[in-house]
Amino acid sequence: MKKIKIVFFDVDGTLVPLDKDDISEKSAFALNKLKEKGIKICVATGRAPIQLPKFRGIDFDIYLNFNGSLVFNENEDIYKNPLSKKDVFTLLENGKSMDKPLAVASKEIYACNGTNPDLEEYFSFGGSQPEVYKNFEEFIENEKIYQAILPIKENEYERAMDNVLTTKIAAWWDRAVDLIPKNGGKGRAIEEVLSFYDIKKDECMAFGDGNNDLEMFESVKYGISMENGSDDLKNISYDVCKSVDDDGIYYYLKEKGLI
User: Fold this and answer.
1) How many domains is the chain built from?
2) Residues near 141 by Cβ (< 8 Å), separated by ≥ 6?
């Protein structure tokens, strides 16, 4: 394994079990050890900046948000890729026809035109809920929207995406989906990060568990799936580590001599 210069981490189901809010002591130890060795650590998540994890004693070097639509470090934005306004309004109308609420995210605000149990549970994983806006369409018009969320299941995807032209689904849960630009995704964002820091693909490692991590794994040499990860992700992964509940990241990094 070539010298690793950066490691990307999905959050939900990877760093943190879906039923918990914080990482384990072993995972925290591993992240800090990587930083001590001069290896950059990047959180790569579908969450918005306002939902970014505040893990004890850990400062990430880079934040990849909205499945890659917004990337920044402590000092500056690295990459921005908002959704098409036309697509967002089409998703809104499609959602209404299915009796599904739509949530959207700007850099600092989650807004929605209503809610339901699936949408509420989706947001509970990030520890917050979107605000219901009476002037929802005005909010969409006036803000850069980096991600939309619809509480739909796989058999509803086709109807929800009718006449949506430049937006795609990034799914990591079976009862709601993230909607991001077709030309975006974690993989595209990682390519921007590597170019920004002049790091090669074979100097990168990533940990993930869901199908929204597929493109991330294609953009790094060493994509490591959690044992609790999806079969699709495992099929393209470089390796599989123990589950998030069993401190898979810690034990894998230790086994490979990275910490």
Assistant:
1) 2
2) 85
In order along its 259 residues, the chain shows pLDDT tens digits of 779 999 999 998 999 998 887 899 999 999 999 999 999 999 999 888 888 877 878 999 999 998 899 999 999 999 999 999 999 999 999 999 999 999 999 989 999 999 999 999 998 887 788 999 999 999 999 999 999 999 999 999 999 999 999 999 988 889 999 999 999 889 999 999 999 999 999 999 999 999 989 999 999 999 999 999 999 999 999 999 999 999 999 999 999 999 9
CATH number of the CATH domain containing 97: 3.30.1240.10
pTM to 2 decimals? 0.83
The verdict on residue 247 lying in a domain is: yes
- Sign of the CA dihedral 143, 145, 149, 150? positive
Domain containing 200: what range? Answer: 6-80+184-255
